[in-house]
Amino acid sequence: MKVVRLLALAVLAGFPCFTAGATEPVLKVTTEIGSHSYALSKLDRFDQNVISTRTTWSDVEKKFSGPLVRDVLADSDMPLDAGFVLAKALNGYNVRIPVSEFIDTDVMLATRVDGNRIALEDRGPLRIIYDYSTVGPVKDSFWVWMLDEMVLVAE
Questions:
Q1: Which of 144, 146, 118 is nearest to 55 (CA)?
Q2: Residue of 60, 75, 79, 108 with fewest CB within 10 Å of its CB?
Q3: What is the pLDDT of residues 41-72, one digit of tens each?
């Protein structure tokens, strides 16, 4: 409880939101071969994509940007014909997502919202984002905020 109060006081006092540094690892991708760590600066080197969309949680359209998940998986030597990725979030949420989702659909690993890095308080620093205008609420369970790890899972 003290931590929550201190955080609230820091925000009210005008201290900046807690965001991951550009060189600190924010994502771990684990495959059969090994694991790869990604800092925001490394994720910024991938082709950057933009999805402007509303979500189930927001009626206001937001502009998300970042690399496609399939590009990050390919870089980490994950076989793109693998079964599932277990996406793990800092808040304890875990979901198994078929790797085919990332191949068949432009699913983003969002590093920014409306041009700004995503602070931890805003459910960052990474999110798995679908274009809601195309897929609708069908994929809601696959949206992951506070993402910090993706693990290859056999079928």
A1: 144
A2: 60
A3: 999 999 999 999 877 777 788 999 999 999 99
Tokens of 59: 């009626």
Task: Work out the pLDDT band at 141, boundaries 50, 70, 90.
Answer: low
For 33-63, the three-class secondary structure string (H helix, E strand, C coil) is CCEEEEEHHHHCCCCCEEEEEEECCEEEEEE
Q: What is the pTM of this model?
A: 0.81
Looking up residue 74, the CATH number of its domain turns out to be 3.90.420.10
Q: How far apart are CA 29 and CA 37, in angstroms?
A: 6
CA gap 110, 68 in Å, rounded: 8
Residues in CB range of 10: below 8 A, 6 or more apart: none
**Per-residue tokens: 22:** 């550009």
CA atoms within 13 A on the CB side of 1: 0
DSSP string spanning 54-121?
EETTEEEEEEEEE-BHHHHHHHTT--TT-SEEEEEETTS-EEEEEHHHHHHS--EEE-EETTEE--GG
9 found inside a domain: no
Q: Is residue 132 part of a domain?
A: yes
Segments forming the whole domain that contains residue 86: 20-153
